[in-house]
Write a structure and sequence with these properties.
This protein is an alpha/beta fold and 328 residues long. It is built from five helices and 14 strands. The protein is 16% helix and 23% strand.
Length: 328
């Protein structure tokens, strides 16, 4: 399934039904009077959060959505039927912007949460409404009002409690596969992962916690370099960052600092988010090198530091224990 996290759509609510001019014509009612009914309301366009959706892919093929118009009023004071609402399902975590004003209209986070983005037009009044002592036989009615119209921008920010970050080839996808049932693409070259991957990791209590593997972070990501600028926003909602550092890299300390600088430059509180530093691929490095890296990183920050190997699954249980304690 292709991962799409931005889309632009056009939404239009239905027009209200017209009111009508009608008079009662009954054998035993000599002064029947006006009896034109009101038009029905136009349908609205409503967005609904669906937890089964993970992408905005559907909006690549369908961009225009219109609710039904209200029906015109009927004789004998019958009100026209309301137009049917247009229901659009979006993934949980979707933010809705007015494309013209950049106003945030809503943020659908919870399953079943709804947002009316354009309201249907009001139905017109029939001539019955205008009956008065001064006008006993009004011969006019009102047309229904048009529905609202907007262009919207949808942006998806994945909902995950733990975001796995690090430079390309740090082992993020391997770790995700080792911890969860997710099966991301894994290879021995950078930028293997081109889209965020989600995986559910089970706690000892049986509850599931969602982890997100965030790809493509490199130096300059916040300015649009590489893939990172497309996916940095997906860790805005995370409660905890799991920072993977490759101990077999030429300069692991510089790798760590590059990611930290990108988080600082991007802003939105990412640099203040709690972090756990996991030194990965310890099975391929000597103990002296590992301890040196661990000591230098410890001098740079106060975050917990643990040595692991995602490939051999070394100390992954200890890593998860630290994750659960930090989240709790």
């Amino acid at each position: 399934m292709q991962f799409i996290d931005r889309a632009e759509i056009e939404v239009e609510a239905g027009k209200g039904g017209d009111g009508i001019v009608a008079f009662r014509r009954e054998k035993y009612v000599p002064a029947g009077g006006p009896a034109g009914g009101n038009g029905g309301w136009g349908g609205s366009v409503i967005l609904v959060a669906n937890s089964n959706l993970q992408t905005l892919l559907d909006f690549s093929y369908s961009r225009n959505f219109k609710a039904d118009d209200g029906k015109r009023g009927g004789p004998s004071n019958r009100t026209g039927a309301n137009g049917k609402n247009c229901i659009i399902e979006v993934p949980c975590g979707t933010i809705i912007y007015d494309l013209e004003t950049e106003e945030i209209l809503g943020d659908l986070i919870e399953k079943g949460q709804i947002l009316c983005v354009v309201a249907g037009g009001k139905g017109g009044l029939g001539n019955k409404h205008f009956l008065s002592n001064q006008n006993r036989a009004p011969d006019y009615a009102l047309d229904g009002l048009p529905g609202e119209h907007r262009w919207l921008r949808l942006e998806l920010k994945l909902l995950a409690e733990v975001g796995i970050i690090g430079l390309p080839n740090a082992g993020k996808s391997t770790l995700m596969a080792a911890l969860s049932a997710a099966r991301p693409k894994i290879a021995d070259y950078p930028f293997t992962t081109l889209v965020p991957n989600l995986g559910v990791v089970r706690k000892p209590t049986g509850d599931g916690t969602v982890f997100a593997d965030i790809p493509g972070l490199i130096e300059g990501a916040h300015e649009g370099v590489g893939l990172g600028h497309e996916f940095l926003r997906h860790i805005e909602r995370t409660r905890l960052l799991l920072h993977l550092v490759d101990v077999t890299s030429i300069d692991p300390i510089a790798d760590y600092q590059i990611i930290q600088e990108e988080l600082n430059a991007y802003g939105r509180g990412l640099s203040d988010r709690p972090q756990i530093i996991a030194l990965n691929k310890v099975d391929a490095a000597d103990e002296e090198t590992i301890q040196t890296i661990k000591t230098e990183l410890g001098n740079l920050n106060s975050s917990p530091i643990i040595t692991i190997s995602a490939v051999t699954r070394t100390r992954l249980e200890e890593l998860l224990q630290i994750v659960w304690q930090t989240l709790d």
